[in-house]
Structures
1.
Amino acid sequence: MKKIARIFLKGLLVLAPVVVTIFIAYKSYQIIDGIFSGPLIEAGLYFPGLGLLVAVALIFSAGLLASYWLGGRVIGYFESLLLRLPLLGTIYGVIKDTASSFGSHKKGFGQLVRVRVPGGIEFLGFLTNDSDPVFLGKDQVAVYYMQSMQWAGNLVLVPRAWIEPVDVSTEEALKFIASAGMFKGKT
């Protein structure tokens, strides 16, 4: 009976991320497409996928607007208002910080490091902070250990002497760690 439960749990762990991803993508498509379908069907201008096309155009327009000084100032103003709202501001701030950590101009997950701990054990993680006087002790750095096969992880403060930078791209590092070491890096 335990073997059957283990096999079932393993199947659930394999299928759950795929099913959740497909479900979120499908629901997002339905919502976006549904917003534009009603009035446009009546006008005879609707076709399936128009909502997705409009969403892509809106995202591109927002990026274009944010690329210019005045647009960036307007977006910054509305962002500061949103950040002041209780609960929503906190949620938005965490999502914004996480998303910006993947940008090329931010530090974020940019530096993969090998952490050597006593006993010969080594961990791979991302150096996320090396200079915060509030949270880090003298000669400490913050390293984020991502868990394999999922996007959870642990933030660990370790002595600076324990870390060694690894010269790979962030994309390769994420693939290697998320795949539990099954991804083969480029040589």
2.
Amino acid sequence: HELTSRICIINNVDYNSWINKVDESWSGAIPATLVINSVSGKRKFIEQPLKEGDLDLYLNEVNN
């Protein structure tokens, strides 16, 4: 799909200082995925493992 992604690594061990900045609904559990449409600002946060086809579904959600 020729996706290009910006990947951020946060190495701040004080997770309480930044976890809500990622998504207010995030409990801090991993795996977690955040998909953002950089043009519209539409976001989708998923706090569970992704299954085959899930990423395509979430990409379509933020792009429509």
3.
Amino acid sequence: MSDWPLPFWIAHRGAGKLAPENTLAAFRLGAACGYRAFECDVKLSGDSVAMLLHDAGLERTTNGHGRAADQDWKALSRLDAGSWHGRLYAGEPPASLEAIAQFCIANRFALNIEIKPTPGHESATGEQVALAAERLWRGSQLRPILSSFSPSALDAARSAASELPRALLIDKPQADWLDIAQDLNCVAVVANHAIWQQQMIDTLHQAAMRALAYTVNDPATADWLTRLGIDGLITDAVDRFSPDTGKACASPMDPGVCSSGTHDR
């Protein structure tokens, strides 16, 4: 893929450990730490609005109850998605994909959208998220990548917006991972860092695809994967890894790291 949009270091769920995950607050903190590429989870509200949320249920990361898929966006947008993380973020609302798109486009940040369907909504979520992404990034030179653990969601995304690049997510070793990625015309495979092997990365590169790893939070793992030839690392540790050098800083929130910067690898 000649116009690969992602730099080497990618912030997981914004800066989803230091701020409430999948919120604009998390994206802003990741940007303050110098990151210019982000990963987030996107699913559909009950009225098919693309929104950021990892779980099917609302309880872990908001003051809401039940499934997001059973509630309309007007109600969901009024929830508190920050207090669970601390008083500093009390009142932080859930983020729509539209709000994240505006933030990323304005700052020329890259985005990996993980399509995270509520169980039973795989195809509909893939289709609607892809259509929303195609509309929101229309005219932008930096297109988002659509990734998912669900082949059905990726297939629906391909049918809805074939020009947007796709990546297959895998958490455990499976014999048919390459066949699935190729059948879906994926440009990358994003896997649990623990399952990567040299042969897997070499096979992907020979197939003209990229290899990315999640969630890499310690220097030893980052160094090992870099030596294997990994193409990108998704991290929670935005305060401990410089996106410019890839090196771990001496202490969390080192001023030399948490400042604006770029990484062109």
4.
Amino acid sequence: MTSNWPDLPIGNYLAALASSSPTPGGGSAASLSGALAAALGRMVIAVAQEKEPAADRASLDARLHELQDGFLALAEDDELAFAEVMEALRVPRDDAGRAKRLQAALERAAGVPLRAAEAGVRVLHSLAEAEPHASRSILSDIGVAAHLALAAIQSSLLNVAVNVRSIQDPTVAACLQGQAEELRRAAQAAHADVVGRVDTRLAPKGA
């Protein structure tokens, strides 16, 4: 289990990710991608603030900072949820409470990446607000952040799907799938908006 996420050296995390240990895995990697997207958006705001401080930029930075920290918390939550699933699977099959415990753990394990995908969409919307503040020299960083946010969302939704397929309650499964599909559509639209803005501003004059 990864510990102390905010202070974890990136090299240590990558070494743990590359190991045969079940955690960290794809869920935390997806959340880390979201944290990187939020941090990169904050960098664009910080550069603009140095040139000309503005209250709207400060509030946007605070929002992205909250999302950045939230992704680190979600990375830890993902590992904890996975551990709960594994613990439930280790319960003897003849245990009367095993099925209920496993289903509850799977629902929690699906809920964490769903929250990560939702946070990723919020990052994309924040990047759309940050784009006008980006000078042409760092405009590409908005695009990179948007791609990272989309990767976080798409990766998180994969982790929703892998847990939903084992959830036996059709109503719960359908609800989670519906939320995931709604987030997928919202992410695609928000990503296209941000990247379209960046591409337009970076296009050669007269093109």
